[in-house]
Amino acid sequence: QVQLVESGGGLVQPGGSLRLSCAASGFTFSRYAMSWYRQAPGKERELVAAVTNTGGSTNYADSVKGRFTISRDNAKNTVYLQMNSLKPEDTAVYYCNAGFRYVDYWGKGTLVTVSS
Length: 116
Hints:
The chain is an all-beta fold and 116 residues long. It has no helices and eleven strands. A hairpin with a 2-residue loop joins strand 9 (92-100) and strand 10 (103-106).
């Protein structure tokens, strides 16, 4: 069955770094574009970063450009989100998404809290 399992979340101080991972199984990972979304309390889910199926192209929300980097390893069926210079406003549940044509898969999310 399809699984997307996020890990790497936690509590970090402002200015710190975290690396999120999303391990995929149950589908042909290399066909799917992969994305990270986040949802802060009381706010709608928003796209943070996305990478094409080959890893050749990425895009980012303006709020994270220059601080976050999305990457993938198709040999390991894993997508990553390196988050640097974290700010309190980055606090949210971060979700992994796999998309191909009209198919979407979601993980259950990992909580990132940026606080001193």
